[in-house]
Amino acid sequence: MKRHYFVQQMNNQQQQQRGTLDGGVYAITPVDQSSKGFDATDGPPDYGIVNIYQKSSRDLKGLGGGKSIYLDSGDDKSDSDSNVTAGGDGDSDIISEYIGHYGLWQFCWTFLLCLFQIPTTFHIFCLVFQAASRDFWCARPAHLRSVPVDLWRNLTQPNGAQCSQLNVPYEQLTADGFAGYFASMNVSEQFEQVSCAAYEFDGTIFGQTVIAEFGLVCDRARMMSIVEMCFLAGAAMGSVGSGWISDQFGRRHTLMFFALIQAITGFLLGFATSLELYMALRVIIGFASMSVAVVSFVLVVELVSGRYRTVVGILNILPVAISYVLAAGIAYFTRDWRLMQFIITIPGAMLLSIWYWLPESPRWLLAKGRIDELKLIIDRAAKTNGFRLPEGYEKTLASPDQDSAEEVVSIFDLFRMKFLRTTLVMLVVWFGIVLIYFGITLHLSNLGGDIYLNTVLAGSVESIAICLSIVVVLKLGLRVNLFLYMVVAGISCIVMNFVPDGNLWVIITLAMIVKCAVGACNAIIPTFTAYQYPTTMRNLGVGAGNFAAGIALIIVPYLWLLEHTDQYLPITVMGVFSIIGGLSLIVLKDKLSQKHRQRQRSGSGSVSGSVVTRSTDDETRRIEKHFPRDQAENGISNIGFAQNESIFL
User: What is the pTM of this model?
Assistant: First the structure.
């Protein structure tokens, strides 16, 4: 809990009593209701003067009737600063001083916003069940449907072929005389094999699927990779396009607009009657879904500050893992791809109801200089969180100059020298994480075993990993965790090559280790990326990472075609890229680490374990603009402060 300190003006007589000045110290007095001449309940004065004095060899006790606090200006080299943790209070800004880092207002909106991950994950993951591989054979003619399937397959497809059958005059046969006809002659030698005119599918495990609906087997099987790529290509475009759009039109309207497109397209997919229409709609819903995922995440982390930004940023991905479990349950009970499509679209449609009340990102409004709109949000948030705002506080909100307010950032800014290394590393890391994450997630059926059970198990393991990663991240930081998780996932993939045949449980165990590690990476990487860029570029930075992720998503369907060369070659490729991504993090600085934050606080001091961050030049100019001050005597500098902007420890 921060304590409020009142800085009293020192007159010439008080200055003379201090003796020789040396060092670099502020003298401040804690607000005390018993202090003579000042009532803490009235709050600090509207305007005051802080005289900057230097450290005296004498004691400064008694200043203003209370004890004084000395703020050393030297670098704090201590590693024991408890506040210098991931996302600590050093992330405070003018907005967090008025509404707090995290309160009831932030909790309600971050909780609702994280729910947008559920329909998005549904649409990404649904093809695991909607396009699941099923056993199939050449369809029986209508008048022979009473012939048992096993008998039909044994007689018409004697070599076990699925895509062809004997060219027998089936129209002349009857169900009763079917077996006798084949027994009376050696039909396998007399009749040649011809392609199937239609197909039947096994409905034991899965019901009606996209593959069965549009006949994506045999010579049309390659179309399934293209169908899967349609969604992922749309997602790749949405990851970048949404960044620019939300920066121009705001997080709130961008999010809800694409959520509307997602809901409409989701329902239309359930009515698709041709493969071409289905593929076109998958491109659109891919664009909308990735836009919703990116913008909702950015809005979540911009509603909070301090260490809560790290915690909330990671927890925002928790619904993704939970959605896997829910999707498995929906698929198990529906057993029909159209019905499943309608059900998974309903949650996104319901979330549209919050559009009117959803707040815009206060930090985006501040960056854009839209102070009037920002004030309304701060008033509402402060009231909900129980904060009392001073009169005229909006004067202290930074209003950018006209040129900076109208400055437009673009994707090219990410590749300027200042951000070039960061952007390139982020592209490699995102590519590696998503390649292995979705390579495992979207192809769980390739690992063997029950797809429903594997999905529930993978989602549960990932949920636990995400929750545990929060504790580890707050202790070690984001970069160290990303490095460890990516290396562990990569090594586990490579180890699968050395598992003897027949040990399915070992393969499943290693796959769960990979899912656990890379699931934590998937939760951490958006937050880590967001911290690498300023507010106006944050959405572009995360979007660029998602673009690399989109490229990885497009590659995933074709990557698994390598299993025809070697069973574990796709897993090995994923593991190598994961290790490369982890090693590339070494060249980046962890902006949430203790050492980095201590360097950032160079010039700030610690008082009884607390950290004080001095006002920046911009903040000083902002205060002086509304509260002019005079130059102090004898060349000693004075700093003006406004109500509710005195020093907090």
Answer: 0.71
